[in-house]
Structure to design on (202 residues):
């Protein structure tokens, strides 16, 4: 799991989701771009999770350089492809050279960490800048990556269902944002109708 900040008080559902996957025998390792805040307000289990999570921004420049050198030696062509993709952010996406270099640096850390942990699938929560880091790293390694964020249209969810081909979809019936009530279940049902893949259970 790749998050911009993990664990976080405002997103305890991610921690519960990871715990549930582990209870079902799935090995899950976690990495965060930023260190967790307000650890004193977290449970002992969440504090232990924070201690076991790789925090990219805590790594020294030497560690980042070492990770990139290892990638370059393993696959010069692959590294150049990743570099070219990062440079493309100068004309599309962030359009900021400092951010583009930052994402490249973080992608190198992520690749080295993924190699060491034999990661086969990267799941990134929320479509924020960490999605760009995941995209760069996974493009270099050729591993599967998925992105989930709050709020979706039925047709977009249908595309994700066809890509992931889940056996079960679990969702809330709805949510309240401010004074507005959002009905999630009808959106999911509509997405399943539109998708080619039909989950066994919803």
């Amino acid at each position: 799991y790749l998050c911009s900040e993990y664990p976080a008080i405002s997103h305890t559902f991610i921690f519960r989701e990871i715990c549930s996957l582990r209870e079902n025998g799935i090995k899950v390792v976690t990495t965060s771009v930023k260190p967790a805040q307000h650890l004193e307000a977290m449970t002992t289990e969440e504090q232990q999770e924070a201690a076991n999570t790789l925090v990219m921004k805590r790594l020294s420049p030497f560690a980042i350089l070492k990770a990139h050198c290892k990638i370059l030696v393993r696959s010069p062509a692959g590294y150049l492809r990743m570099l070219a993709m990062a440079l493309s952010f100068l004309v599309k996406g962030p359009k900021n050279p400092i951010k583009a270099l930052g994402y490249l640096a973080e992608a190198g850390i992520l690749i080295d960490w993924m190699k060491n942990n034999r990661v086969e699938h990267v799941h990134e929560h929320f479509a924020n800048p960490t999605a760009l880091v995941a995209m760069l790293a996974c493009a270099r390694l050729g591993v599967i990556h998925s992105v989930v964020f709050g709020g979706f249209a039925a047709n977009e969810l249908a595309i994700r269902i066809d890509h992931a081909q889940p056996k079960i979809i679990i969702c809330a019936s709805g949510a309240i944002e401010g004074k507005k009530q959002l009905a999630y279940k009808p959106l999911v049902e509509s997405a399943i109708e539109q998708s080619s893949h039909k989950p066994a259970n919803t």
About this structure: Strands lie at 2-5, 31-34, 54-55, 121-125, 144-148, 174-177, 180-183. Residues 168 and 201 are 5 Å apart (CA to CA). The helical segments are 12-23, 44-51, 61-74, 76-87, 97-117, 129-141, 154-164, 184-194.
